[in-house]
Design a protein that fits this description.
Blueprint lengths: L1 H38 L5 E6 L16 H16 L4 E4 L9 H10 L4 E8 L9 E6 L24 H8 L2 H18 L4 E7 L2 H4 L5 E8 L3 H7 L2 H22 L1
Parallel strand pairs: 1-2, 1-3, 3-6, 4-5
Antiparallel strand pairs: 4-6
Helix pairs in contact: 1-8, 2-8, 5-8
């Protein structure tokens, strides 16, 4: 029994050391690059979109965690890392609903350079797990409200062809952004890789800039729900998203 306690304590200390090391590396690496961005006048604008809000809770975990709260906490953590170097805006800053079209319309209005929508996965199967990153597929997308998963925002009867043409010119850049962010996240987290892939997500179709949607784990999975409520785990995710963004901008420039 004593050895078990020692092993658990050792594992906990090593986990803290790993997180601290990664955080220090992020601050150092991002600081070098981001200072250059700041010196150029902060022209780059990034819009972060915390999914759901208000009457729409999104996915709800077995411990009653709500996707809308988790995504807002994560968006704030990413903004904290990037603010001062980029102009970072949130589509919502508290618990209220914003129509799907208004989210990318806000980014368009501010002439944003990047749009990143943040979600968690959700499923009636509690075993469903993992992290996935999506970019618009270029296929007909359809509009529905978020019921259980961000990636179910695909189906409706209304014609959205004009709306979708906005994102067409950014397909290659959106794909590169998605790959860059996804690679950084998977490299940091011990989590099931649901891959980076194209999907007909209506939310992304109207963005007049490179745009992606990240599902950072399943709120409906008991283990991942606990992780998503852990501030240290959220910091790891925020670090991955932030570093992926800076790498993409650096490569683009």
């Amino acid at each position: 029994m004593k050895f078990d306690k020692v092993d658990k304590l050792t594992g906990f200390v090593l986990s803290l050391f790993l997180i601290a090391s990664l955080t220090f590396t992020d601050v150092y690496a991002e600081g070098i690059f981001l200072r250059g961005e700041k010196d150029r006048g902060g022209r780059i604008t990034i819009v972060l979109d915390p999914g759901h809000g208000g009457h729409d809770s999104g996915a709800i975990g077995p411990g009653d965690s709500k996707e809308k709260d988790l995504t807002l906490a994560l968006a704030r953590a990413v903004k904290k890392r990037l603010s001062g170097y980029y102009n970072v805006l949130l589509t919502r800053t508290d618990d209220y609903w914003i129509d799907i079209e208004e989210r990318t319309a806000m980014a368009n209005h501010h002439n944003a350079d990047l749009f990143i929508s943040i979600h968690t996965g959700g499923s009636f199967r509690h075993r469903a797990s993992g992290l996935g990153t999506f970019y618009w597929s270029g296929k007909e997308s359809k509009r529905v409200s978020h019921i259980i998963r961000a990636t179910k925002e695909w189906d409706t009867e209304e014609d959205s062809s004009e709306w979708e043409r906005i994102q067409e010119r950014y397909l290659s850049k959106s794909r590169t952004l998605a790959i860059t962010v996804h690679k950084e996240l998977i490299g940091r987290l011990s989590i099931n890789d649901r891959r980076c892939r194209a999907a007909p997500i209506y939310l992304l179709a109207g963005a007049d800039m490179p745009a992606i949607l990240v599902e950072v784990g399943y709120a409906t999975n008991p283990t991942e729900e606990k992780q998503l409520n852990n501030p240290l785990f959220l910091e790891l995710i925020a670090g991955g998203v932030s570093k992926g963004i800076t790498d993409f901008i650096q490569d683009r420039d």
